[in-house]
Specification:
The structure holds two protein chains of two kinds.
Chain A (H helix, E strand, L loop, with lengths): L2 E9 L5 E10 L2 E6 L6 H8 L7 E6 L2 E2 H4 L1 H5 L1 E4 L11 H11 L4 H14 L15 H12 L6 E5 L7 H14 L4 E5 L3 H5 L4 E6 L2 E6 L1 H7 L4 E7 L11 E6 L3 E7 L8 E4 L4 H9 L1
Parallel strand pairs in A: 3-8, 3-9, 6-7, 7-8
Antiparallel strand pairs in A: 1-2, 1-4, 4-5, 9-10, 11-13, 11-14, 12-13
Chain B lengths: L1 H9 L2 H21 L5 H35 L6 H14 L13 H8 L3 H22 L2 H6 L6 H34 L23 H29 L3 H21 L7 H5 L2 H5 L1 H4 L5 E4 L2 E4 H26 L7 H17 L5 H12 L4 H13 L11 H13 L1 E2 L2 H27 L3 H29 L7 E2 L2 H8 L2 H28 L3 H5 L6 H33 L23 H30 L2 H21 L4 H8 L1
Antiparallel strand pairs in B: 1-2, 3-4
Classes of the chains: A alpha/beta, B mainly alpha.
Chain lengths: 286, 659
């Protein structure tokens, strides 16, 4: 099973390119798509889900163009969009039945799957409530449930854990990990901790281009020596590019800055710190 | 804060469109109720007016005399209220020393006074204001944010109240001005400087108003009543927990008011309930043209003053109570018990619909999820009310009754011999009547002679129509011939006003359903999600198309049902085989049968509906905006309908004209 993106480009209205010669190969496992707003993550997702057509390039599934596969490709797809606009007057269960009909599932398998998914995302007791009355987190969970209805081979998830509390985030993360053995799961997210421990590969996207792609350990190794913890006095400040400061901690007698930068700090006490994905994000995107 | 609230409403385009739509609906209602009047009508009414003018002074004198007689007969046992009532009545009417009554009959003024549908449109606008001033903010969660601010409780709600009252007053003023202008243009309001007592409708008015003052007072009064209606509706919206409770309480109050107005009289035991009633007070005939004093602990109080006091108390009372309640509590948005019941009901219903058919799912989504079942339900009400409109009437004048009687005896297949025999008998009856009339004349019995003369006129009129029809049928022995009550048939086929109304309503319902089907997913930005599913493209589009076809056919049949019932009353299937060139009324020189004509007419109607639906679907897909598509296409249909109405035509008549 393989999803390949070959030289995909997309421009909107003759302006700056939303995507520019993107190449990437996805095999079973979890892939994290990281990038700031406007990087092209949603555009890439929409192209991979065949919602929009790329200006150039191809998206191939097992070496077949997805445009030629048409609904056969969509039968393998599960998509969770970022926007939470849903059918407010549908109950949670009704909405899943409707999506099951759209996914071409038969009644018997729909019934069992809907019950299972509602339980899995902790919405069984709310299944008869209208979606309009759901909280943001509940809407997120119902969207996750509908994405998994048809047991897809390819799961595209745009900000899947936004609005969820920590226990729910962990639950979803563990679920995705379990599923990733024989599925391609692509997660676009800003919450780096969601993918830090489960992603097989992280793709860093900036201004429509893939900046870096690789395993998390490998990427973190590249900035291993660039993360510092700097101590200054309580009334002092550390002057550097402030947007690369990942954390400021107030001690009893000192202020501790955690920064990521190419060169060691000057004129202050510092020590090396362990690099994380947040530092990686800041390093490449700011 | 008032300016801020007003700005919020004015900047909401949907709110402005709703307001314009309700105003336009009022105009359509006015135009629908305007009847064509013949010169004979004006002549008769002018004569009645002249008679009224001659007797008005006498009427006032008689009233004064009766009052004096009553006063003279009062003793110690006379109830205090009765004495005071008579004294007050005398005082009030003494103001009318010399009312200037114009001899010219004010048709437009009378029509305006009798038009009372404006209150329904004000009520609809009250609900629109409730939605846009309060409920929308509550539903979207913005209210929770506003309530956390310093002025976010009493002051904020009072600002909303002020804006509500301003909007209701402004809307009513605009509506009434449009109504006055409409009637002024169509029928002329006459000399507005003459006294209001010029109209027999306002004979009992105790105020020395001119007509224009009467209009001004009525408009101002209606503005107050509109504010009261708005207050009660807004009060229910603020105080009640959940939409269902809001609808039930506000509609219950309105229904009670309407019931009292329809069933109570000012002369009955519950005159108080009748007089303070908004529906009763809205009617200009009641407000200006009716004089009545209510017994308030022995003191006679004029009903208008009582009505104003009570309604203003209601207005300020609802404002005060709701502001206090809003400040101290916040509703959850769903009435618990009713909500649980609804949830259970809905669960049962949706279980039945666990089908994989996209066609069924789309229909369910459209009618129930988008709550568009209201549209076919409203159309069904109009269709139900239209059935009697197509029923053949018994007779408009006596001659017609005679004709109907003849046709009732002859109805069916034309038999030359039997028909000749019957007509000869009818002719003899007419001749006999004439003979009797002549004899009465010769005998000097003018009364009997006049009576017989009127009877002869009617019988002759019916007989002549019959013989003309007979001769035409006789002249075509080769054709299949039937006796058909052509007057009744014309009644049904020439009912252009109801045809146009049903066309407009069914077309608008179809437009809204079609745009809801085709554009709502894009509107809700859920199209991207749906597009990624296996059946979310071509199959879903086919399912939507099947829904549109299904709805078009069903609604078409329902909308044409009243006319079909009308035709069924006049024709049977065999009579439908009558050729058009055998009909006297229509003057159509075609050998097509009536049935063939009707098939053509209804096919054209179906094609029109289909065309409208196809255009709507196309526009919805292109614009991806349900609201814009609905408004644009509905406007086109309404304009087309109004053009047909003012040209006194319909699709049926146009087809006949082409033939």
């Amino acid at each position: 099973m393989e999803l390949t993106i070959k030289d995909v480009s997309k421009t909107y209205g003759g302006q700056k390119a939303a995507l520019s010669n993107v190449n990437q190969r996805f095999t079973p496992g979890i892939y994290g798509l990281l990038g700031p707003n406007g990087a092209g993550k949603s555009t890439l997702m929409n192209i991979m889900t065949d919602n929009i057509k790329a200006d150039s390039g191809q998206v191939l599934y097992n070496d077949t163009d997805i445009h030629n596969m048409k609904d056969h490709y969509r039968a393998l797809l599960g998509y969770m969009p970022q926007q939470q606009t849903l059918y407010d007057n549908f109950t949670g269960e009704e909405f899943l039945w409707y999506m099951a009909a759209l996914k071409g599932m038969d009644k018997k398998s729909s019934k069992g799957k809907i019950a299972e998914l509602l339980d899995m995302v902790n919405l069984w007791s709310e299944k008869d409530k209208k979606i309009g009355s759901f909280s943001g987190g509940m809407k997120q969970r119902i969207l996750i449930a509908q994405a998994m209805l048809n047991d897809p081979e390819i799961l595209m998830m745009d900000e899947p854990t936004a609005g969820l509390d920590p226990s729910e985030r962990i639950r979803i993360r563990n679920l995705l990990s379990t599923l990733s053995e024989n599925k391609i799961i692509v997660i676009a997210t800003h919450i780096v901790s969601d993918i830090e421990f489960i992603a097989k590969e992280i793709v860093l996207l900036r201004d429509g281009e893939v900046v870096r792609a690789g395993q998390p350990k490998q990427l973190l190794t590249e900035i291993r020596d660039k993360v510092y913890e700097i101590e200054v006095g309580l009334s002092e400040e550390y002057h550097c590019n402030r947007s690369r400061i990942t954390n400021i901690r107030m001690g009893a007698n000192e202020k501790i800055y955690r920064v990521v930068q190419d060169e060691p700090p000057k004129n202050c006490r510092y020590q090396h710190a362990k690099a994380g994905l947040e530092e990686l994000y800041l390093y490449y995107f700011l | 804060m008032i300016v801020g609230e007003l700005r919020k409403a004015w900047r909401d385009k949907v709110f402005l469109v709703m307001m314009a739509t309700v105003l336009a609906a009022n105009i359509v209602c006015i135009l629908y109720h305007i009847e064509n009047k013949s010169a004979y009508y004006y002549e008769v009414r002018q004569q009645a007016q002249q008679q009224y003018i001659e007797t008005y002074r006498t009427y006032l004198d008689e009233m004064e005399q009766r009052g004096q007689e009553l006063m003279a007969n009062f003793d110690e046992d006379t109830p205090v209220f009765l004495r005071r009532n008579v004294e007050k009545t005398e005082r009030d009417y003494s103001r009318l020393s010399r009312p200037w009554i114009d001899a010219k009959y004010n048709v437009g003024m009378e029509e305006y006074a009798q038009y009372t549908y404006g209150i329904f449109f004000c009520t609809v606008f009250a609900f629109v204001c409730l939605e846009y001033l309060y409920l929308k903010e509550q539903r979207t969660g913005r209210m929770a944010i506003l309530r956390t601010t310093r002025n976010g409780r009493r002051k904020m709600l009072l600002s909303k109240w002020c804006v509500l009252l301003l909007l209701m007053a402004g809307f009513t003023a605009a509506q009434e001005m449009m109504t006055v202008c409409c009637y002024g243009v169509v029928d002329s309001l006459g000399n507005l400087s003459s006294s209001v007592q010029s109209l027999p409708l306002f004979r009992d008015c105790p105020h020395a108003y001119t007509l224009w003052q009467g209009i001004a007072v009525t408009v101002l009064h209606r503005m107050v009543l509109a504010m009261v209606i708005g207050s009660v509706v807004f009060f229910c919206g603020v105080v009640c927990d959940g939409m269902l409770a809001v609808w039930i309480t506000s509609c219950a109050w309105l229904a009670a008011q309407y019931f009292f107005a329809a069933n109570l009289t000012v002369n009955g035991s519950f005159d108080f309930l009748c007089c303070i009633n908004v529906f009763h007070s809205w009617d200009m005939k009641n407000y200006i043209g009716m004089y009545h004093n209510i017994n308030l602990m022995g003191i006679p109080v004029e009903k208008n003053d009582m009505s104003l006091t009570v309604n203003l108390a209601l207005l300020f009372g609802t404002m005060a109570v709701s502001t206090w309640l809003f400040a101290v509590r916040y509703q959850t948005g769903n009435s618990k018990r009713a909500f649980r019941l609804l949830t259970w009901l809905r669960g049962q219903l949706s279980y039945l619909l666990h089908v994989q058919s996209l066609f069924v799912n789309e229909l369910y989504k459209l009618l129930l999820q988008q709550n568009k079942w209201v549209l076919p339900a409203a159309l069904a009400l109009v269709i139900g009310g239209s059935v009697t409109a197509y029923m053949p009437r018994d007779y408009g004048f006596e001659g017609e009754a005679v004709y109907h009687m003849y046709l009732a005896n002859l109805k069916g297949r034309f038999n030359a011999e039997k028909s000749q025999t019957y007509i000869e008998q009818a002719g003899h009856a007419v001749a006999l009547l004439e003979q009797q009339m002549n004899e009465a004349n010769e005998a000097g019995d003018k009364g009997l002679a006049t009576q017989l003369m009127f009877e002869l006129w009617d019988k002759e009129a019916g007989y002549q129509r019959l013989t003309v029809q007979y001769e035409k049928l006789l002249a075509h022995p080769e054709a299949k011939r039937y006796w058909i009550d052509e007057m009744n048939l014309s009644c049904v086929i020439k009912r252009f006003d109801r045809d146009v109304l049903l066309f407009m309503m069914s077309a608008i319902v179809l437009i809204m359903l079609t745009s809801g089907l085709m554009a709502s997913d894009q509107d809700k930005q859920i199209a991207d999600l749906v597009n990624t599913t296996r059946s979310g493209r071509e199959k879903l589009m086919w399912a939507k198309r099947k829904c549109i076809i299904f709805l078009t056919v069903i609604l078409f049949f329902l909308a044409q049902l009243p006319s079909w019932i009308g035709y069924a009353q006049v024709l049977d299937l065999a009579c439908g085989g009558q050729q058009l060139n055998l009909l006297v009324e229509w003057q159509i020189d075609s050998s097509m049968t009536i049935l063939q004509l009707l098939v053509i007419i209804y096919t054209v109607k179906l094609l029109m509906d289909t065309g409208i639906v196809m255009l709507t679907a196309l526009m919805a897909r292109r614009t991806k905006n349900e609201f814009v598509t609905s408004v644009f296409m509905s406007t086109v249909v309404i304009v087309a309908g109004l053009v047909m109405y003012f040209c006194h035509t319909s699709v049926t008549l146009l087809v006949m004209r082409i033939l």
